[in-house]
Every structure is written in C-alpha cells, then in structure tokens.
Design goal:
alpha+beta, 4 domains, Immunoglobulin-like, six-stranded mixed beta sheet, elongated, about 550 residues, 8 helices
C-alpha cells in the first residue's frame, strides 16, 4: 500500500509540471495564432481600403507625384486669367517623408519676375507670383509657376498641380458643414464666406494684408486631418479628385493632357484686371457667323456678348474691369484683338468684329480657356446650292449650326460639302418701267432711249441664285403674234444691266412701236451660276401690258 502511494505521488510530481507547461504553452500559442489571424484580416482590410481609396488616382502611381515634392497652386476662377485665375494660395506636398505646408500668395510678395506685358501692365509694372498665370498653354503655365517658385525659394519641385476654386468646393462636399473661425463652412458658402473673411481687413496694415489669406491654409490643414481620422471620407475625396482631373479642373504636370490653342482656334479669353471676384457673375458668349459669300470667299462676323448678372455685393460682386482677348485662327492673321471695358452689375456689353478670308475652308475650331465659362453660337453658311455631306455639327441644306455651353476645352468644326451641280433657273420675268430702278440704272436706260426714235422695251429677269454672264451672252425676244397679227417684229437686243444682288438682269430691246398685250418668247444664252453650271434651257413668256 505504501509502495503504491509513493509510486502515485512520484507520477503526479513528474507529470503535473509537464501538464501545466503544455496548458500555458498551448494557450499562448492560440493567443498568438488569434492575433496573427486578426493581423492578416486587418492587413487584408487595410489593403482593400487603400485600394478603394487609391484606385481612382491610380494614374498618379509611378509618375513621381507620390515620391517627389509637389507644388500646389490654388487658382480662383472668380478672378479669371488665361491660366485659370488669380493665385490665392500655394502649398508644398511630400509623401515620403511626410510634409505639407500652405501659404497665401502674398508670402512671395517680395519677389518679382520681370516686367509685366500687356494687358497685365494696366495694373502692375512688374510680374508678381500671383500674376504668372498668363499663358493659355497649360503645361507652359505650370512650368512658369515651378520656375518662379524655385527662383524665389530655392526649393526643388518635381510636380506642379493647378487646383481651382470649383474643385475645392467639390472637395468640401463630403465633409458637410465644417465649423471654422466661428463660422459654419460648406461647399455652398465657401466662396462667399472666405471672400468676406479675406476682405474684412485693415488695408493700411502690412501684416494684416500679408496674412489675410491665411485662413484658407488653415482650413486646408483641418480638412486633411478630418479625412485621416474619418475613413469614410477618403474614398469620396479621391473619386472627386479623379473626376476633376478627368474634366481638366485639376491639372498635374506630366500626367494631365496638355491643352493649348491650336492654329485653327477662335477663343474668347477674360483678363480680370481690377474687377475683384466679379468674373463669377459674368455670362460670356461668342457668336461666330461664317458665310461663304462667293465660292472660296468667306466673311466672319464675330460678336462678343458679356452680361454682368450680379449685384452690388462687395467683395463678391462689384463693377468688373479688365480686357477680353479675342484669339483668331492663323488663316485670319492670328494676331489677337484686345477689347478693354468696364461692366457694372446688371449691365451688358457687346463688341463685333468683321474678318474676310479667301481660300478653301473646311475646318476651324473654338478654344475655351481653363476654368472660364463660355457659351458659343456658331453658324456656318456655305455658298447656296451646296449641301453638307459630313459635319461635326447640326446641318440642313447649306447651313450648319452649333449652340451650347462649352464643356470641353476644344470644339472642332469640320465638314465636307457636296458641290453645286444644279443649273440656275429663272424665277421672275416681266416687262418693267425704268422708273422702278435705282438712279444709276435709270440714267443709263434713259440716256439710251434718248438717242433713238425707237421704243425701248425693258425686261426684268430674276434667277434662283447668283449668276455670271459669259462673253457669249445674248438675249432674244421672239414675237409670238398673240395680240397683233398685223405686226411680226422681234425686238432687237441692245444691252444688259446686272443689279447688285447678282441675281437680277435688266435687258433692253428696241421696237419700232409698242405692242400692247403681245407675247414674246425670251431666250438667254451665256448665263451660268458661280460654279459654272449653265442656265437650264427653256423659253419664258414675256407679256407687254
């Protein structure tokens, strides 16, 4: 019995420590496995989340935008300039190592970049950093900002991003209402609230002026922090950014497509040179009426209409002051035309230009400057009797038309036409009195009649289109003996006058005496339209009344 108890005691003394160690070892192993699983699941979820967040911006990966230093230029289209608008702020972003900073545009006020060119020299003799957006070539504009920033700060920059006010408003949408500086800011009132904040300042205090646009930088930093701590916002933000990149509202050098005027472009470009933020309230439209007056001879009537739809509400809406630049295609000379004007709230102004071009024309285009709204009406009228075969706009017979608010940067008007192969025909033929003619024509026929005792018979002939008379032109009247059987006399052709409409002829014939209610057959030879199609054969009856 004693031996059995000792054996049992030795057994448990040896096994118990071993059983306890296995228990805790297995428990620890299960805990580690559980955390590994949690880690794997978390990693997968994080990868999926990052994929959802970054996928809309996948075009940026591998382009240096995430590995280099990026200069962000905030342009305000409410103060329009050719490159997008007045520069309100700028920032520098770097992902590795993380770095982000924002400054108002006046932080570089001590640096100037040469003499200002027209029309910018109307407001400043030198170019400041915020005035460098003067090029319609978006890539050239971005490079100008990059070079100027590096010159002023000696800070190497790899990429430039141009970001407009409309995109900032879109970015604010997912955040809803944000409390900032005792105000509630949303995408709906961002423009108005910040415009009033930066304008309510001591205009004679240098420090206040330099820092008056700092609140925009502060708001940007606050939004970045909120997007980091709220995982729901980030995917919506990247989708908004992707959409704006696609639409051209956000330009990224080296990634976004280059947009610039082409040789065949018309363009209406706004230069806000003292109109504060009133560009936001201007309704601009360009009307182009292209007409082929004669084959391969074109006239262009270009009218610019601008309406100031705002009211007096400083600093949002006040009198606009500046210039509009009308860019012309190279085939019209290519030199831009500037139109300086001022527009008060509620007023509208118009300006019309006329141009001519001789040559074959099958295409021209319309360019819209970055972030500048523009409505366009284009009418193309081919010389009559032609028709459009193919066109990039709506057509009927020989007239094409386009009318809409431009969404894209370019609209190309390209067409192919079917030439006129139809002969001209007579639409009116009657005996007339010379008293109905303009003085210069009446004098001619009166002087002819006074030289002879014979009776002058004048016949007016209209055609359906413009015509030309050949060297072999001849007109004849054949007496049909309808009313006066006793006299068979064919009037003798004397001369012809072609009226200014190029569709009307006045034919003069001699008679020995008048024949009342007589019928004559009129025949014309040597008549053709402007495309060389001869007059369709056939006699027309002329009646003397």
């Amino acid at each position: 019995m004693k031996h059995w108890k000792e054996s049992l005691f030795r057994f448990f003394r040896k096994q118990k420590p071993q059983i306890g160690w296995d228990f805790f070892h297995q428990k620890r192993k299960r805990r580690i496995d559980r955390w590994k699983k949690i880690g794997k699941i978390t990693g997968i979820v994080l990868l999926v989340y990052l994929g959802i967040v970054l996928w809309p911006l996948h075009i940026l990966l591998g382009q240096g935008i995430l590995t280099g230093r990026t200069l962000i230029i905030f342009t305000n289209e409410a103060e329009s300039r050719p490159c997008g608008g007045f520069v309100t702020a700028y920032g520098v972003f770097q992902l590795f190592p993380p770095h982000i900073e924002f400054h108002n545009s006046y932080a570089l006020a001590e640096h100037t970049f040469g003499e200002a060119e027209a029309p910018l020299n109307k407001v400043s003799s030198t170019k400041n950093f915020w005035d460098l957006g003067t090029s319609l070539d978006i890539e050239e504009c971005a490079e100008t900002f990059r070079s100027a920033y590096r010159e002023a700060t000696q800070d190497p920059i790899d990429q430039v991003v141009l970001l407009n006010l409309g995109t900032v408003e879109d970015i604010l949408t997912p955040f809803g209402k944000v409390r900032f500086n005792d105000k509630v800011i949303s995408s709906n009132n961002l423009f108005s609230e910040f415009s009033r904040i930066v304008s309510d300042v001591d205009r004679h205090d240098e420090t206040s002026l330099k820092t008056r646009k700092t609140p925009l930088s502060s708001l940007a930093k606050k939004l970045i922090f909120k997007s980091i701590i709220n995982p729901i916002i980030a995917p919506r933000l990247t989708r908004i950014l992707a959409d704006n990149i696609q639409e051209g509202n956000v330009f990224i050098s080296g990634i976004s497509p280059r947009t610039r005027p082409e040789r065949s472009d018309f363009a209406l470009v706004e230069w806000n040179l003292g109109g504060a933020k009133s560009s936001r309230f201007l309704q601009k439209s360009i009307h182009i009426f292209t007409r082929e007056e004669t084959p391969k001879h074109w006239t262009f009537t270009v009218r610019l209409d601008v309406v100031h739809a705002g009211g007096i509400d400083e600093p949002l809406s006040q009198g606009w002051k500046g210039a509009f630049e009308l860019m012309l295609p190279k085939f019209l000379g290519g030199e831009p035309v500037f139109w300086e004007t001022e527009i008060s709230p509620g007023e509208s102004v118009s300006k019309q230009f006329l141009f001519e071009y001789a040559g074959d024309l099958k295409e021209f285009s319309l360019f819209r400057a970055r972030n500048q709204s523009l409505s366009a009406e284009v009418i193309i009228s081919l010389f009559p009797q032609q028709t459009f075969a193919l066109a990039t706009f709506d057509t009927h017979e020989n007239v094409g038309e386009f009318f809409e608010t431009m969404k894209s940067t370019h609209k190309v008007f390209r067409w192919m036409s079917i030439p006129d192969t139809s002969p001209p025909f007579i639409t009116l033929h009657e005996v007339v009195d010379d008293s109905f003619f303009p003085a210069k024509y009446r004098w001619k026929w009166t002087s002819i009649a006074n030289k002879s005792n014979k009776k002058l018979l004048l016949v007016e002939v209209h055609f359906n289109e413009k015509i030309k008379l050949g060297e072999n032109f001849h007109a004849s009247l054949i007496d049909r003996d309808f009313a006066d059987m006793s006299l068979n006399e064919d009037p003798v052709y004397e001369d012809v006058s072609s009226l200014e409409d190029e569709r009307t002829l006045i034919l003069g014939f001699w008679q020995t005496r008048k024949q009342i209610d007589e019928r004559f057959f009129l025949e014309l030879k040597g008549v053709a339209d402007f495309y060389g199609n001869p007059l369709s054969s056939g006699k027309r009856t002329i009646i003397t009344r």
